[in-house]
Amino acid sequence: MEICWHHFKKLPSTNRKAMESITAGTFHEGDVVWTDEQWQGKGAGENSWESESGKNLTFSLVLEPDFILPSEQFLLTQIVSLALRQVIKARMNGQECLIKWPNDIYVAEKKIAGILIQNVIKGPVLQASVIGIGLNVNQKIFVSDAPNPVSIIHFINRETDLLPLLKEVIQQITVFYNMAKDNRQKIFIQKTYLKYLFHKGIWASYSDINGMFEGKITDVDNYGRLQIKDLKGDIRLYGFKEVTFEI
Q1: What total of structural domains would you count in the chain?
Q2: What pTM, to 2 d.p., does this model score?
Q3: Which CATH number belongs to the domain containing residue 191 in this structure?
């Protein structure tokens, strides 16, 4: 995959810019749009992403994963989550670095990065995917009501050069992306995602439409739904935004 860089001083949203460019036919696999300042960055659902200008990575990568069926699109989440986790973990001085389902990266039980994937489906294939990533790097103070943000600088006490870090993230995504083209490696990716899943195999508190309960994450199915075993031994199955972690 050949990478093509598109840098902007300011953008409302890198994902929006990438999606507009895909629609216009000007962006294709390997195009990366990144910005120093993003004021309408989106997290999952209706969440926003706070990022101080020039301090963090806010970018989107365009992929054309036509080897992935729409029903298997959660594989993209696993690919990107693992790649981002690997880059962050290398800088954490031994701190635990895990993936909070479906695609947030947590260090010391605090959120350091988030992922927003938007897919363009045409017939039986994923025609295009926009991989939006926000990674907290050099921002020390957060002013939004986000409950638990943290940055790389909080763990290493020095600033990190953003462009080399961005290139490293793209490189690692490319590695896992190419691995996923092999069915045997797909299984490895899925197992590794489970291995590094936040709260996997431990009892913790969750909330769903019926209220709070104690449960233990046991698996994630091929559609990306989270499986939680409750105290009665029943397996509860949750789609995106159907369950809340009580951290």
Answers
A1: 2
A2: 0.93
A3: 3.30.930.10
